[in-house]
Write a structure and sequence with these properties.
By secondary structure, the chain is an alpha/beta fold. Helices cover about 35% and strands about 15% of the residues.
Length: about 250
């Protein structure tokens, strides 16, 4: 999904949402990005206009499906961005694109997610009974309270939300060579799911420049800090992509 009308961009950013979210999670980003960077958001099954489709709980399947849709977009330099579950999907998407021999991203941006080689020591919630599952999601502050309090809405989003948590909880890292390009990792200084050390461990997954930045906030620090994060993304892209230059 393109997040603003077509223009003449110099680069593209492919954004993958966090658990339970859709492409609209990035709708306000377009207003803050420069004209040279065209934002696209991935719309996963079982949400928004794909509500009738069954959710997918395997990250490899999600990555393969996204890779199949990207071939027409990667004619320009591009980067990947994902938060939380989205960061894990972007990482496996990057490795899938490499496996297929598709044009590679110039950079990977990840936030709110421990490095993929680290074991997930958080309590699993994807198979909990409904009330316990909703309580666990509420504790992460990831779904608006109005949605959680409305049974009708929860019936619609619960299957996708459970599948998204399964993506993370049932993931098993498979060692492969580091990515040839750099990674920038963002974290919240009060995020209960990801420590500074777990975020810094992303360094092992790239053979180029690695940058880690910390912002005030919990797991969803990206909402309050999105303007600073987008500025950092643009700065890092200028550094790694000569065609952008001083734009």
């Amino acid at each position: 999904m393109r997040l603003r009308p077509p223009s003449q961009p110099l680069a593209r950013m492919i954004c993958v949402p966090y658990a339970g979210a859709g492409a609209n999670a990035f709708r306000y980003w377009a207003e803050l990005l420069p004209a040279w960077l065209e934002p696209w958001a991935v719309r996963l099954p079982a949400r928004e206009t794909r509500l009738a489709e069954p959710p997918t709980s395997r990250v490899e399947q999600i990555a393969a499906a996204i890779a199949a849709e990207l071939r027409d977009l990667v004619v320009l330099p591009y980067c990947l961005y994902g938060h939380s579950m989205g960061a894990l999907v972007c990482f496996e998407l990057a490795r899938e694109l490499r496996r297929q021999g598709v044009a590679q991203p110039v950079h990977l941006f990840v936030s709110g997610r421990r490095a993929p080689q680290l074991p997930d020591d958080l309590p699993g919630i994807c198979h909990l009974p409904r009330d316990a599952f909703i309580a666990a999601v509420r504790a992460l502050n990831g779904i608006p309270e109005g949605v959680l309090a409305e049974p009708g809405l929860m019936e619609f989003i619960e299957p996708a939300l459970r599948a998204d948590f399964a993506v993370c909880e049932e993931y098993r890292f498979q060692p492969q060579p580091p990515l040839a390009y750099g990674i920038s990792a963002f974290g919240g200084d009060a995020d209960p799911t990801t420590s500074a050390g777990q975020l810094a461990a992303w360094r092992e997954q790239c053979a180029a420049e690695f940058v880690v930045r910390s912002y005030p906030g919990d797991h969803f620090f990206v909402h309050a800090e999105h303007a600073r994060i987008l500025a950092a993304i643009c700065s890092d892209l200028r550094n790694v992509c000569p065609s952008i230059g001083g734009r």
